[in-house]
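Field notebook, page 228. I keep forgetting to write these up properly, so this time I am using the form the group agreed on. The chain and the ligand, zinc ion, are recorded exactly as supplied. Prediction of the bound pose follows.
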Amino acid sequence: MKIIDAHSHIDYLTHKHQSDVVGTVCCTNDENQWTQLIDLIHNDKNIYGAFGVHPWFIDSVSDGFDSRLEELLNSDSDYMVGEIGLDKYKPNMDKQIDVFIKQFNLAVKLKRTVCLHCVGAWDKILHILKQYDKSKLPIIIAHAFNANQKILEQLLIYNNIMFSFSKINVYSRNCRIANIPNDKILVETDGNMDVCLMDVVQKIMTIKNESDIAEIIFNNTQRILKHG
Ligand SMILES: [Zn+2]
């Protein structure tokens, strides 16, 4: 089995700890981590970088962060955008939206895969997505996806939306995974060393009753790394 972790952070490089895992998508939390991640990528070809400011860390944002992010993304066409998004349980939603949209616009402009964090704010994300031409949207990975069926249906109208999962026991209680097309499924640790990705893939295999799901998930990851 070959697996790529579709969402981790710089402190947990999954491929160095779990057999079968051959690569790790690493997201940054804030601008301070950008240089650190570039160094890691330059020393390890199995690390794939997503750069951005996470909604929990918007206090760290300083003037011009978006032009610096654009310059960074332009320096390497492999770079993705993330982790960006909205979180209802964190302060200052207006600023979160502003920071998110600035980064999302760069991903749209430069056609880069987006690692999206959304907690309790799908109404806002769906509203924002409607402002864009559907055919121009980049791949968007709804990480640790845990929304209800109604939201899932509204998201599935976007061809480029994908969903990544870690703790299947919790997330699958409404058979969400069963309702997601195979070509939109990814697996992730989110930097949590207790998540064994081989177990996650095997659980998805059982839910889907599909023996080649591991290969499908691996191919899905290849698509996100190529931005589509
Ligand atoms: Zn994360």
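OBSERVATIONS:
- The chain has one domain: 3-225.
- The longest helix spans residues 93-110.
FOLLOW-UP: compare against the apo run.
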